[in-house]
Write a structure and sequence with these properties.
alpha+beta; two-stranded antiparallel sheet; six-stranded antiparallel β-sheet; 14 helices; globular; binds adenosine-5'-triphosphate; 3 domains; binds magnesium ion
Length: about 475
């Protein structure tokens, strides 16, 4: 996006200031947050505006100027209070009581056109009481990476926060993991909620079950509304959270996403995915693929994600035990594996072209697919895209024709696993009528876009920004992601 010419205007006409804000969290009282002020930046250059989410806020994209974004989300004019939320969390297995919004705040909560409440939360907006000596800032590359991850995951069908905007702020930052000095940005995230597992953990740490209960009532009222009025709404809340998280992890696993930092302060109480730091999409199927260079023991590697999220849910039982019967909590968590497996199976079968596959061979196909992908180390995303690209009704005629026009898979007769896979896929295709093959082809295309947000792809759009401030490749990549191509 070319930052368009900006013009002065009266801030009272800024459409971001007249949205349906609700002081939902603020009204809980100041046990949960600290009021903070935003940093003042030397520069404000709008680098990204997410026009795709504006209609959901009831805004007409044509009527929102770049200056509106900058005054609201770069200069933070006209909105108060800005709230740094308090939370703790288990980080790489260790409890950390010195956390909280250290480089962000809750800008506001908005009732959107879908009737849901959304949080606008910042990242890189200055120091707070929780900065722990940090500079309160976000690097430009960090902003670029989070914008890309959120859009990519959203269009792949993952339940995720989105970025509303990202503004370059003109500071020189020093970071150990980027060539420094490096450029700065402030990002505004739109999420279903910024209440984290760690928000409850902090209240437990301070032995305040009264505050935990008040917060849980708030969570149910806003994010689990259908449970209001149920006699055992607290137990039902936990059971549903377990389901939401299990399904979220299944979504990550199917699209080949490794979050990288699954600390309990990065787990949302609504079951939404957020905080995209050192994440990566897996290049090939490697269970031990680890995205964060500082994750020395592979704690949060790709295949550990289901068990780690289950563990995080178990840790959340400690603060919830003051409100929910431990037996109910245990029963809720016991369903995690089942929810995960059902969702993962269904999503993977979709990637293979099947909306519903009740044949006994379904699991065999899934296992064989994973085995082939792991043994061959063929590109994970590339393989599914190639299936979609080369799909032909002829695949029903004989196994040797399955994917025979693709040059990324082994030639027929050269790989026993792949040959077995072709035999099975061919067999399953023959369960369907000829007319149904169009549906399979369409499902393959819908589920497996060509554009995969692999690290080299991110670097290929970052490099022109870094070298010559050329944002065109970044804009083009986002357009491709948003069009599902
Ligand atoms: N540059 C920084 N200055 C101050 N605090 C920071 C900085 N970077 C991270 N933190 C704080 O360190 C903790 C862990 O950071 P983490 O990267 O998980 O969160 P975050 O990315 O800053 O925010 P979010 O979880 O909302 O995406 C948080 O309390 C965060 O506020
Ligand atoms: Mg975080």
């Amino acid at each position: 996006m070319n930052p368009a010419e900006t013009h002065n205007q009266n801030n009272s006409h800024n459409p971001f200031l007249t949205l349906n804000y609700e002081p939902a969290l603020e009204s809980l009282g100041n046990d949960y947050y600290d009021e903070v002020v935003a940093a003042e930046f030397p520069q404000h250059i709008l680098r990204w505006r997410n026009d795709a989410v504006l209609p959901c806020l009831g805004l007409d994209t044509q009527k929102v100027t770049n200056e509106d974004f900058i005054t609201a989300f770069g200069k933070f004019q006209g909105r108060k209070p800005l709230l740094a939320l308090r939370y703790h969390g288990y980080q790489f297995g260790e409890y950390n009581s010195r956390l909280g919004d250290g480089r962000g705040f809750l800008y506001g909560q908005v009732r959107a056109t879908d009737g849901e409440l959304y949080d606008f939360g910042t990242k890189g907006s200055g120091t707070t009481p929780y900065s722990r000596g940090g500079d309160g800032m976000l690097t430009l590359k960090g902003g670029v990476r989070e914008v890309l991850a959120a859009e990519a995951l959203h269009y792949l069908g993952v339940r995720t926060s989105r970025c509303l905007t990202m503004i370059e702020t003109g500071l020189a930052l020093w970071r150990g993991d980027e060539p420094s000095p490096t450029r700065s940005s402030v990002m505004v995230r739109m999420s279903s909620s910024h209440i984290r597992f760690g928000t409850f953990e902090r209240l437990h740490f301070f032995r305040r079950p009264d505050l935990s209960k008040k917060l849980l009532d708030h969570v149910i009222e806003h994010y689990y509304r259908h449970l209001l009025g149920e006699k055992d709404k607290y137990a039902l809340f936990y059971a549903e959270l377990v389901k939401r998280i299990a399904e979220l992890v299944a979504q990550w696993m199917a699209v080949g996403f490794c979050h990288a930092v699954l600390n309990t302060d990065n787990m949302s109480i609504t079951g939404e995915s957020f905080d995209y730091g050192p994440y990566a999409f897996i290049p090939t199927y490697d269970p031990y693929f680890t995205a964060a260079y500082f994750d020395y023991y592979r704690r949060y590697c790709y295949s550990h994600q289901p068990s780690i999220c289950k563990l995080n849910l178990e840790l959340l039982q400690e603060p919830l035990k003051a409100i929910i019967d431990p037996g109910d909590l245990a029963a809720g968590l016991a369903s995690f594996n089942k929810y995960y497996q059902v969702k993962y199976r269904s999503l993977m079968l979709k990637k293979l072209g099947f909306e519903e596959l009740c044949y006994s061979e379904a699991d065999e196909l899934l296992n064989l697919t994973i085995k082939f992908l792991q043994d061959s180390q063929i590109g994970y995303h590339e393989f599914f895209y190639e299936m979609a690209r080369t799909f032909s009704p002829k695949w029903r005629d004989e196994p040797a024709l399955v994917m025979s026009t693709s040059d990324i898979v082994p030639a027929s007769g050269t790989s026993p696993i792949f040959d077995d896979w072709c035999v099975l896929y061919h067999k399953i295709l023959n369960y369907f009528d000829l007319e149904h093959l169009d549906v399979i082809s369409q499902t393959l295309t819908n589920q497996n876009p060509q554009t995969a947000l692999l690290r080299p792809v991110i670097e290929s759009v970052w490099e022109p920004i870094f070298q010559e401030d050329n944002w065109q490749p970044f804009d083009e990549l986002i357009k491709k992601i948003q069009s599902g191509s």
